[in-house]
Amino acid sequence: MANIVRVGSPTPSHDDHDNHPHGKKHLWGGIVIGILTVFLVASLYYLFKKKLLPSLRRKPQLSLMNKKGTLKDEKNMLRRFQLEEVVKATKNFSQECLLGSGAFGNVYKGTFDVEVTLAIKRPHNESYQSAEEFMNEVRLLSRVKHRNLVSLVGFCEEPGAKGSKILVYEYVPNGSLLEYITGKRGSSLNWRQRANIAIGAAKGIAHLHEGIIPSIIHRDIKPSNILVGDGFEAKVSDFGLVKCGPTGDQSHVSSQVKGTPGYLDPAYCSSFHLTPFSDVYSFGIILLQLISARPAIELAKLNSNYHIIEWARPGLERGKVEDILDVSLLSEPCNMKMMLKMGQLGLRCVVNTPKLRPTMTQVWQELQEALYLAENFIHKQPSWDSRKSVDYEYSQSSFVSINGVGFQRFHVEMESPSFQSTVLRCLENNSISHVVSEKTSLKGTFCEIGRT
Asked: Which parts pass through the membrane (predicted)?
């Protein structure tokens, strides 16, 4: 008897039952592969657009070269900018982009591709005597790498003796310490911010002295050259006057006197012997300014060049830091012991004999230890020194009461009489040189020094 098979309705076989679960596995596998493919494509697109494309748009980075033209150090990679790039970024060096100016040149804010902001330093034509002098400075600055030092990003060098020679630095957004000391920023620093700025700046200078071989001496430490970054982190800037320090058995290097009045080391001015302790002296002045918010030289008094050291020393030697304290610190809790430590350390930095001054490493270590003690014991004792007999009353207004006597708070602007003289203008704008007497009275012979 013949077998009858119904056409179009095949009887399921054992193979069909076995393949059904595998079909589901293939379906899920296809979904997973599809998701991974979409994710991979999206990642490649982001990487290309955000990372690779900007890099391709930029000019190739060039390593610094030695005199023979060979690569000097693969770690010292700097970008070589074209003049057209810099002109575009600064809107043809417009006043709108001008950040500051000085004897050496002008500094502009430059905005490049992908919203990268950099600081463009355009020296005056006479700032460099030759292209080799410019490249020597680039080589020197390429070694400066520290979180508390403004980094050199690149340079622009046009051919010819009169070709543009431009330095490109990282951009620091919050202005300089000078602007906070003078009240130009519209807000004052609290005691902790002042201490942190002092510690950061000291670490940066210490790196120049001890973290680089051969060492580097800044020669122009002053408030306008200490920039304030994010989180009020200090960054030392403006390396236009830097010089290599002593090497081997050398105790000093002989150098023509350069710097800014009020911050120049008297020992350096009288002997022409430059050492890292010259920077220590300048930093001591900054410590005094951080707690008092006064200019280095007070010319408001008739017939007197009144230096901040002469003014601050009596109170600090008596342990009465409140006698010289910035009045803005009296309107809120302030750790007097930390301020006193900063002031007394400042006096140690400006002693007449350079070898008796602390090193910059000792300075930041002492400041950091004092801040640690202040922050860890601040809740166990009053922020104000309880040994003082002065009675302080605080308010959020512009008036402060001390021992029942009312004082009004003022911001010192650069247009005030103290800052109208050409000498004090150099605190913000330029670097000129003067000889200072051993007693730091600034009544000695003044001499203007050129750039060499």
From this structure: 27-48
